[in-house]
Design goal:
57% helix
C-alpha cells in the first residue's frame, strides 16, 4: 500500500505535464509567412508612403520599435540596437524584410515592452510581403 506522499507526487507530476500540454496547444499560431503573396491592387495601397505613415508607423513601428530603432536615437538611447537598423522610414523598415519577420514572429523582438498582438503581426506580415513583392517586381510574364 502506498503512503500519502507516494500517491500524490505522481498525480501532481501528471497534472503538471497535462497542464503544460494544454497550454502549449492553446498558444495561437503566428499569422502569415514570407510568401510574397500580395495582389497588385493591395500592393499599391500597402506600399504607399501614406499607408506607411498612417498605418505602419502608429500601429507597429512607433509602439514596438521606436524605443531602440529610430534613426534619431544614438549611443545608449538605442538600447543595444545596431546603428542603421531603423524603422522610422519606409525604406529603412523594408530593408530587412526576412530578418524583421523572423525576429517578430518568433517573439525575439521586441525584447522588452509590449509584444505585437496577432492582428498587429498580421498587419506587419502583409506589409512585409507587399514590400517584398514590390522590391522584386512582378516576374510572371518574364518566362513567356
Amino acid at each position: 500500500m502506498r503512503t500519502f506522499p507516494g500517491c500524490v507526487l505522481p498525480a501532481l507530476a501528471g497534472l503538471l505535464g497535462l497542464t503544460a500540454l494544454v497550454l502549449a496547444a492553446c498558444e495561437p499560431e503566428v499569422p502569415g509567412s514570407l510568401d510574397r503573396e500580395c495582389d497588385d491592387a493591395r500592393r499599391a495601397e500597402v506600399t504607399s508612403q501614406a499607408y506607411f505613415d498612417t498605418v505602419m508607423v502608429p500601429t507597429i513601428f512607433e509602439p514596438h520599435c521606436a524605443y531602440c530603432h529610430w534613426s534619431d536615437r544614438t549611443g545608449d538611447a538605442r538600447h543595444g540596437a545596431p546603428v542603421g537598423v531603423d524603422y522610422d522610414t519606409a525604406d529603412a523598415a523594408s530593408s530587412r524584410i526576412s530578418t524583421t519577420w523572423f525576429r517578430v514572429s518568433t517573439y525575439d523582438m521586441p525584447p522588452m515592452g509590449k509584444v505585437p498582438t496577432l492582428a498587429e503581426m498580421a498587419t506587419l506580415n502583409e506589409w512585409l510581403n507587399c514590400a517584398l513583392a514590390e522590391s522584386i517586381g512582378d516576374d510572371d510574364d518574364s518566362s513567356q
